[in-house]
Amino acid sequence: MAPALTVLVPVYNEAPTVERALEALLETDLGLEFEVVVIDDGSTDGTQTILGERRWNERVRLVTHGRNQGKGAAVRPGIREARGEVTAIFDADLEYDPSDLALVVNPVLGGESNAVFGVRAFEGHTSHSFLYVMGNRGVTLAANLLFNVYLGDLMTCHKAVRTEVMQALPLKATGFEIEPEIAARLLQAGERIYEVPVSYRARASDEGKKLTASDGLRVLRTLVRCRLSRIG
Prior knowledge:
Blueprint (H helix, E strand, L loop, with lengths): L4 E7 L6 H10 L6 E8 L5 H7 L6 E6 L5 H11 L4 E4 L11 H9 L5 E9 L3 H21 L11 E4 H6 L9 H11 L4 E9 L11 H16 L4
Parallel strand pairs: 1-2, 1-4, 2-3, 5-7
Antiparallel strand pairs: 4-6, 5-6
Helix pairs in contact: 5-8, 7-8
């Protein structure tokens, strides 16, 4: 019997947190059956060893890339592998609380929307996370203007989408710009994105935060590319 939910966990060089993140996820009572697909995107810091040596339960499937290709290159094959009615994305960096998955998944299962995004409450700011917050507001505004919508948090990684809808999206991004591409393609497909508040603890760059200003430019290019192209 297929699970109600597939949780995709893309990881790259997350040795300090990946085991704790997966343990927290597996111990979370979401009130439904779920599987976990972990996609290691060519980690070089021992993450692959941690994932390979640990005896995970039968709900966990591991996919390993030989070299780093980017978050999008990890998420897209994970979407194809999904067997649940709903597919959610959960990062292994402990910035998000796994118990909040229920908040984004349940409205999809309940038929309220085919896509639900978690809007973050930015707490515990550092100088790095402050700049990230400002950048996120900028690209969110750009998306709202380009697609005539009112999203509160374009770059959230807490997403849940009905699997058949997610698998039909023409996703091409290989890097972090997979996040805005998912949103843009959903909007182009006529889907209404429902938003719910979720908790968030931002990391600084010395804790492993990998985003830079160039990522923001790639996000903007991705939004424009999607807006100018047709879906289907």
